[in-house]
Amino acid sequence: MSGLEVAALVPSIVSAAVAVYDKYRHWRNRARARKDQAQNEELQQSLQQNGPLIQSEYDTDLQRIFSGSAKDSTKTTK
Q: 34 partner at 20 to 30 Å CA-CA among 44, 48, 66, 69?
């Protein structure tokens, strides 16, 4: 193979490698977007299902704080 043939092949190989990398990057970004979307849907569903429980615990803690039955965490004991 002459130097001229090699010089003609190198740009073709580089171009093919760049095209493959671009396809891979596009695939990876789509996969990442699908994963992010699935995680967001899972979080939203979890919040919708557990919202009343969280609100109930918040209300209970708030009542404890205002009724004076909560311990003061700023006091130090010796």
A: 48
Q: Is 77 helix (H, G, I), strand (E, B) or coil?
A: coil
The residue behind tokens 């615990």 is 57
- Per-residue DSSP letter, 75: -
CB-CB contact of 26 with 32 (8 Å): no
What span, in angstroms and rounded, lies between the C-alpha atoms of 53 and 51? 5
Return mean pLDDT, the chain.
88
Residues 6+ apart with CB under 8 A from 15: none
Q: pLDDT tens for residues 36-61?
A: 999 999 999 998 899 899 899 999 99
Alpha carbon 78 to its chain centroid, in Å, reads: 45
